[in-house]
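New to this. Please check this fold:
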Amino acid sequence: MTDTDEHGRPEPPIDGDELRTLAGFLDYQRATLAWKCRGLDGSGLTATVGASTMTLGGLIKHLAYVEDDWFTFRLLGRERSAPWNTVDWAADYDWDWHSAADDKPEQLFALWDEAVGRSRANLAEALADSGLSRPVDRPWRDGRAPSVRWVLTHMIEEYARHNGHADILRESVDGSTGE
């Protein structure tokens, strides 16, 4: 059984092997995003701070995209699914960020929850194949193929960086603070 903190986040194992530790920290970061966005309506999810156009809704949609990009498109080499396969990314590189303003909160949370669920299933599939050292099926343009270990570490970094943004955005919405 996993211990959770006062915000419902699963505590990463303090004595886990490499996989359990990496997956534990990724799940902790995912749960931090959920905590920072919990209970907000459309107005709260579209609030900005200062000159930035970043929103919590944009963060949710962006991280749903990043989950699918790394754990489906890159890791398993599968084609992108909707809505990602309908976007002209060359014309609008930041579509995931700003299109979130057109989505209802329940749509954003469902998109992200589904992406996280697919990521977990795809990670399990990849690990069964060759473990943490397994290279992604879709390498970078220069031919390098990061390992599952690298993808997990990158995803922890991606969430941690954006959770810092989420801290500031959430505080601007209703004064909520913490970590």
User: Anything to note?
Assistant: The chain has a mean pLDDT of 96. The radius of gyration is 17 Å. The helical segments are 18-37, 42-45, 56-74, 95-98, 105-130, 148-174. The CA atoms of residues 13 and 22 lie 9 Å apart.
